[in-house]
Amino acid sequence: MRLTSLLTTTARWGRAALALGGLALLPGCDLNFWRMDGPQSTIDVAGPVARSQLMVFYVTCWVTLVIFIIVASVLAYATVKFKARTAADEHAEPPAQAHGNPLIELGLIGASVFALVIIAVPTLKAIWFTYDVPVGEKANAYTVNATAYQWWFRFDYPAEQIEGVGPLTTSNELVIPAGRPVRINLRAMDVIHSFWVPKLAGKVDMIPNRGNFIWLQADAPGYFWGQCAEYCGDSHAVMRFRVIALGPKDFNDWLNREMAPARQVAAVKPTVQFASYTFKTDWKRNEYGYSGRYDANPLQAWRVKQEPEPNEDPALVARGRELFKDKTCFSCHKVRGQHDVGSPAYPDLTHVGSRTTIAAGLLENNADQLARWLSHPDEVKPGNKMYLSGYLANNIRLTRDDITALVAYLQSLK
Length: 414
Ligand code: CUA
Hints:
- With 414 residues, this protein is α+β, with helices and mostly antiparallel strands.
- The chain has three domains: 3-8 and 33-89 and 99-131, Helix Hairpins (Orthogonal Bundle); 132-254, Sandwich (Immunoglobulin-like), CATH 2.60.40; 261-414, Cytochrome Bc1 Complex, Chain D, domain 2, CATH 1.10.760.10.
- 39% of the residues lie in helices and 17% in strands.
- It has twelve helices and twelve strands.
- Strand 11 and strand 12 form a beta hairpin.
- The model has no long low-confidence stretch (mean pLDDT 89).
- Bound molecules: dinuclear copper ion.
- Dinuclear copper ion binds at residues 148, 151, 193, 228, 230-232, 236, 239.
């Protein structure tokens, strides 16, 4: 009799555990999900600011886990101990009722205060630490200005002034020195956005007409995902960016390349080879534009992007450069040294070919995705200005050959 009831109970618990296990497997249906080391993981951190924030999370988790275990044990004990065991128990009078026990109440107040202090001490320390670059590190800090627009990010480097132009400017991919604190001044030009690089630091809002800042640091060279974390309109969900942290030499080399005007490819071939070039055209509206083939070694993929594309067709590039003007792209987008009209209110494309992503970190920077972005900007990023005030307002029509040439041109801008 005892054995059967024990077996029934065991089976019941087993099923419950299986059900829980099944639930646990649902979200990703694979174990990768439970490693929690995805590109936007706040658990798998890569810098001191995110690490101190993670510590606060862990301390809070452990304290609440201890409280949960104590409360659940007392509840389980009371449930088992005072359970009605016989028919007589079920009709018995309840035990004598009492109100208040000073020892227990004072004890509970004391325990709550103690638990709060355990959480408060590391929390206050983390608030202090994450607020601004530590005093001793200030002289070593590098400053970048980040400006948010619907729906992309502009990054200015005030320490790198280009004669007659102003600070070095890039878009959607923020390159920083690794192992050094980086102070980022946050600005917004239209609505409220939020700057978030999960592996490096928590989010801070970018508010129009109100200066804000964040600091972060990458422990080592790496490639990090970031995104806008404040709802900001139609394409908020696809307003992303990347952070590339480089060692001192790599960072300086990058600065030197970036300060230079756009790479000029001389047209030496007499004719344009449109036919030799094909790209995918049957895109579904929400089709993923990121293959994941960079993920194994994204930093290496970024390095490859700094080099000229293989199979570059100089005549095609030259045709693309003309089209960039003919189709009025140049009136918004600056390509320093070739098309200098553009305004800082639109992504600077001087070195767009050397970025790993386009369309604010949404699409991989390759010929297929560039062609997709140029042919269907409204589908990739609904409500974007390039489509509304560019394509529609200026009645821009691009043929397949136009797109082929523009893609080759954009890819040549290293
Ligand atoms: Cu910008 Cu959400």
